[in-house]
């Protein structure tokens, strides 16, 4: 089992204890993940039984599980992210919005489902919602607008494609393969009671708990700390047979930016992406009446942190702090560099000019190419990976998704031609080169 140093454990425990005490959470469990498992964990307050095996409600972390099920359908060719919802769940006012827009909260769907507060009252079917035009509140792809309703519709999409209820699908396709056997739709076995804490006194009030029906996909799941730690390992890349690593990498690319956040905050495909003190964290937070939860990972440090508590509100952020403590005390030791054959001939690498601007094409040890400006110069940079036809496709930066073709005397990239000399007249420079030349 992975572990942390005693001084690290002390720092993690001190932070966890402080958050539980100052936030007045009746019970709180937390842990850090490294090498595929919990490396440290603790319970504070009223935590029945082994603290890693007590269920708490995950809230919106359920959305990421839903997104994994949707992406599995995409990878099977059953749908495309650009498909209108109408092709899969006909008859809703959001039929023209795409699956990808719903996954990234860019569909303009209302934040909540109609009727009573869905998190505190029993739910029904999609038909029971009686959706109307008023539940489309923004234009498509105009701005990030968090929508629980949107994920309810995605859960319905999953259920209709598989011919089974959403919870049966995600249990069979996501939770069981990952070994998350203590993650269920309703509390089972040892489970914390959801509570609200009075703002002015140290007394608590039980919160109700119901099946949310069609809104299950937005926040229904319950899980233990051990299971949530396994999900953190999944987000770090231990995807097993559930999802291709390339699909997970696609999910964590920011699509919509949350302009209301205090810091840099964005959303990928069912995944929150946060920039905290120069570090990018990927995962999701969760809240339901009576519960708060969080799972975030640092995919550069290969570490994660998880937290579950049975309180409705009032906790200071804990997960980013645990990750910062772990990184400060026990930073990752990267693998040693070793020589590797380049994916292209050596004479292709080196300096190329976009007009008069010098860029460098470098080979990376992972088989990718990197094209970017000389150090100290401003400009566009992207990584590229080889396609089966011999061309290269951009992974990130300005040229993400664009095709790079390598010729003997030039690079062809998104209509731009890079040459060995600035505006080389022997290369096919768009618009030609003045015949008199430099003067």
UniProtKB/TrEMBL annotation:
Residues 19-317 form the Beta-lactamase-related domain. Gene3D superfamilies: DD-peptidase/beta-lactamase superfamily. Residues 342-420 form the DUF7586 domain. Its EC number is 3.1.1.103. SUPFAM superfamilies: beta-lactamase/transpeptidase-like (SSF56601). Keywords: Hydrolase. It comes from the Bacteria. This is Serine hydrolase domain-containing protein. One of its GO terms (molecular function) is hydrolase activity.
